[in-house]
Write a structure and sequence with these properties.
Blueprint lengths: L22 H7 L4 H27 L3 H18 L2 H17 L1 H29 L5
Helix pairs in contact: 2-3, 2-5, 3-4, 4-5
């Protein structure tokens, strides 16, 4: 893959480290309102269990369509809160389940699920700090 040249007038985009939410981007998407960003993060922490249960139910039922729907929902929510490493992988796994079948993607899905399961604690920490950090 060839590197993409950057203009001398534009700095390359900064990407938060894995396991750190892009709270700067979240606050920006919230029109600069850190309190709204905090509410979004807290809502994710609160609603996480239902999303996790939806995915687990679909996996236990070995229903590719339900797994795809759950992955799509999770990818959207995690993109909204600033977790691109979870969102992007969720989208890619959803596409692979659709193309290759659930059985062929099961191992990667299990590894991704570990990332997904860690997210509520990460989001809670971000919510605790988003109002106090200089953004």
């Amino acid at each position: 893959m060839l590197p993409i040249p950057h203009s001398h007038h534009q700095a390359p985009p900064t990407v938060p480290p894995v396991h750190e939410l892009d709270t700067v981007g979240l606050v920006r998407r919230c029109g600069g309102e850190a309190d709204l960003a905090q509410l979004i993060l807290l809502e994710f922490v609160r609603s996480y269990a239902s999303l996790a249960e939806r995915l687990e139910t679909a996996l236990q039922a070995a229903d590719p369509g339900q797994v795809e729907e759950a992955l799509h929902a999770i990818a959207g929510v995690t993109a909204n809160i600033g977790a691109p490493w979870v969102s992007t992988q969720g989208i890619l796994l959803r596409r692979r389940v659709e193309r290759e079948g659930l059985a062929k993607v099961a191992g990667e899905l299990a590894a991704w699920r570990d990332e997904w399961l860690a997210l509520p604690a990460i989001a809670q920490r971000a919510a605790d700090h988003v109002l106090h950090d200089e953004l």
